[in-house]
Specification:
heterodimer; A: four-stranded antiparallel β-sheet; 3 helices; 4 strands; about 40% helix; B: about 290 residues; mainly alpha
């Protein structure tokens, strides 16, 4: 029993040691925040704040697309959830709930695109820039 | 018994190790409980039950770690680790990093007995190792993301209420006026520092955070590395005022200090926690901390 507990403790320490490099990779690959999820990167980057979100709908991916008209309360709530999660999880945040809500609210649109715009300081020159991420869904 | 880098992280005598671990565990538990209530008290009416329930469990179990012995003590730590795991999970992905560190330290204390001659050295070594990992990667993250080379992070922090008072005193008038005039809109900038002293300080932070853990690991350099680490931490806390994390991490750094210093530090940490709680309870004038 003691050996098992020792092994678990060593495994925990190993995980603690190996996770931060993986976390760094996720920051670069998916835009997760350095601040959270146990990568110890608090203060490594400016705390993320500014995120905008836009839902575009239309008949096809190549247009014509338009901002979703009169989104329901549910769509707005799911959009806020996505913004909150995107702040920390970047592109690992799922937009499925928002897209489902859009489809339930306005089923006439075959194509839905969710644009997430995040502004932040570019470390190369110190200027504020915007990065865009998109989620798409097309009904067959 | 220990091998590799962990072998350098044990204490020379069993008595010293036991005393050091007991002191460390006491201040960790006190910081966890007091920190939780510091967060819960100001927003009492809006704090969800999902946060309060595990906090109550931690508050009930915390004092038991001081009186329970042997397996029972480890079971108490296991209960605290379970409550802390719940706290970590319900707050995902916004869980503060210090909550993960609390969880790891509680789990280690649940798994290993500090009083056992076989497990005690490992518990002390892994607790110290956890502190080194956090310290080292704090520096590495600053290095790889590059927001400290030209002072970009500090320049941007001018807009943060927590940093503003300290930065107003530290920044040159030119940098302060220029950065305060920036509105953070797309295209604004550059968020960089021009003052050579502050630029050097900005780079010194990540360099120190990557170098000091190595110096703490090596017995030959430990004697100066722990006070240097405390000084760095103190400097950061003067600006950031994250006093709960600061107390936790200072107690971790003090694992590398002589026992009498660690004990004195734990007493100071305890006093600080009482002061912070008193502020939240309205018994002392409120000062801003995080």
């Amino acid at each position: 029993m003691s050996d098992l507990r020792i092994r678990v403790a060593l495994g925990l320490a190993l995980a603690l040691t190996l996770w931060p490099p993986i976390h760094v990779g996720l920051v670069f690959a998916y835009g997760i925040s350095s601040w959270k999820l146990g990568g110890w990167g608090m203060y490594a980057t400016p705390r993320p704040t500014n995120i905008g979100l836009e839902v575009l709908v239309g008949p096809r991916p190549d247009g014509p697309l338009r901002p979703m008209p009169n989104p329901s309360h549910e769509v707005r709530a799911r959009a806020r959830d996505l913004v909150d999660r995107f702040l920390w999880l970047g592109r690992l945040a799922s937009a499925d709930a928002l897209i489902d809500a859009v489809r339930a609210d306005q089923p006439q649109w075959p194509y839905v695109r969710v644009r997430v715009l995040r502004s932040g300081i570019d470390s190369s020159d110190g200027f504020v820039r915007t990065r865009e991420s998109s989620y798409e869904s097309i009904r067959p | 018994m220990l091998e590799g880098p962990l072998a350098t992280l044990d204490d020379p005598s069993s008595e010293e190790r036991r005393a050091r671990l007991a002191t460390f565990q006491a201040i960790v538990v006190a910081t966890l409980v007091a920190g939780g209530w510091c967060r819960a008290l100001p927003g009492w009416s809006v704090v969800p039950t999902s946060f309060l329930a595990p906090l109550v469990v931690l508050t009930f179990l915390g004092p038991l770690t001081l009186v329970a012995r042997g397996v029972r003590r480890q079971l108490v730590f296991a209960g605290m680790a379970a409550a802390q795991l719940f706290l970590v999970v319900i707050e995902l992905p916004e869980t503060g990093n210090h909550q993960y560190l609390f969880l790891v330290l509680l789990a280690l204390s649940a798994l290993l007995s500090g009083g056992d001659e076989r497990e005690g050295p490992l518990l002390l070594a892994l607790s110290r190792w956890a502190v080194l990992v956090v310290f080292f990667y704090s520096g590495v993250q600053k290095l790889v993301h590059g927001h400290w080379f030209d002072g970009q992070f500090v320049a941007n922090a001018v807009s943060l209420p927590s940093f503003r008072p300290a930065l107003e005193a530290l920044l040159s008038a030119g940098d302060w006026d220029r950065l305060r005039a920036l509105d953070g809109s797309v295209g604004s900038g550059p968020y960089v520092l021009t003052d050579p002293f502050l630029l050097a300080s900005s780079n010194l932070v990540w360099m120190a955070e990557t170098a000091l853990p190595v110096a703490l690991l090596l017995p030959a350099t430990r004697w100066w590395a722990w006070p240097a680490s405390l000084a760095l931490l103190g400097g950061i806390e003067l600006v950031a005022r994250e006093l709960v994390f600061g107390t936790l991490f200072a107690s971790g750094v003090l694992l590398f200090a002589p026992l009498r210093v660690q004990r004195a530090g734990a007493v100071l940490g305890g006093v600080l926690l009482v002061v912070l709680l008193s502020m939240r309870l309205g018994l002392l004038p409120e000062a801003k901390f995080y």
